[in-house]
Amino acid sequence: xxxxxxxxxxxxxxxxxxxxxxxxxxxxxxxFSSPAKAGPVSxxxxxxxxxxxxxxxxxxxxxxxxxxxxxxxxxxxxITLNGTETNGELSFPAALNTGxxxxxxxxxxxxxxxxxxxxxxxxxxxxxxxxxxxxxETHINGKLDVIVVTGTGTSFPVPDGLVDVGVPPLGLxxxxxxxxxxxxxxxxxxxxxxxxxxxxxxxxxxALTGTFDQAPEAVSENGGDCFLVSAVTAGKGAFxxxxxxxxxxxxxxxxxxxxxxxDLCKAAITGLTLTRKKKKVKAGKKTKLTLAVTNTGDADAxxxxxxxxxxxxxxxxxxxxDVDVPAGQTTTETIKVKAKRRARGKAKIFAxxxxxxxxxxxxxxKLRKHRKNRR
Length: 375
Description:
The protein is mostly beta strands. 8% of the residues lie in helices and 44% in strands.
């Protein structure tokens, strides 16, 4: 086979490849070294609800002239978080989201015809999260303080400090702070309140829901009386905050089961067995039987009475036995059986409970008489 006379110029090819490689490297370095630009963003919540202990109420939009005529107006009626977004990564620093970003909201007093003011404050370092522009899926995490106002404060109208900046400032008020509630807001949360992905761009026409397992103990500040606050806010809770959506999507009906309604849990005794280790028992001696009771229900069975009997009047055992059987388990008990000295023949042992029966058989071995040695 003859090679083509039009052979490539290897030197030219090498130079071309080298230049191409240098060009690609330069592009790569330029792309790598170019910093991703962070853009300022704001997230406005104009409707909101809270589950906090016994409270399950709307909190946004807030009333503009609340909670007192003694406090400056107008106040915010919504929550607006200020931060940055970088390639889908969100940051809302606490330094940019002081009390100025949070209105005074209110929930009804549990005992009196009053409204209880409350507000939020971010803990350092603030909130972080992610946003997917293609789907509207959003997640925001961090720690939040819930502050419940209980009065005008021991030093009213002089502020007790400038730590809590706001309109009006918290420094004027007696309050109870629930510190460090873990905030895990997501557009993917479905219960106890339904979240929704943003459909109009970042922070527009969507809802975030977050839950927490336990509200912390309330801490008194500036004379706040916190005994009742701790009592009525204890337990699990949730936040629902939205933009452009007035109410959460209704929750689907809950199918009542044993797991969410203990009244539906029932015990079910479905197994009863009676076994023995030995087939024979000597007259005048004792033996043991094993009774097993099975509960396949989803509730514990307490005091299950098992009736016991013997076909041989000279083979004795207890007439009844009470057994506790946990849900989904089997409980075993030992039964002592005694054959009298004059017992003879066989004995059928019966056990019955809740429509179930079990039996076993014993053979009574005659007691031998000891003969005296003759001289």
